[in-house]
Input
Amino acid sequence: MIWVVDSADRGRFGMCKAELAQVLAQEKLSGATVLILANKQDLLGAVNVEGIAKELGLDEMGGNRHWLILPCSAVTGKGLLEGMDWVVEDCGSRVYMRG
Output
């Protein structure tokens, strides 16, 4: 799963946290790979990755989750390829091949 957070909109962090918790509460997403992209890092005043992780309560997500939060910018493309590479690698490392 890929979740995008507007790093420059502090007023919506509470809503974002609640929505993320609601989505992740679905049984079918138990143990899912979760990439959180902290978008708009190119803007002045954007909250850094550590601040967003704290606001979203990512440490409380539980031990069965594979998650990563990365800074990114949809305008410049910074962080996007790195994030996609991580998702592919994480999912691939947990796929069981039958032969």
Notes: The chain is about 35% helix and 20% strand. The radius of gyration is 14 Å.
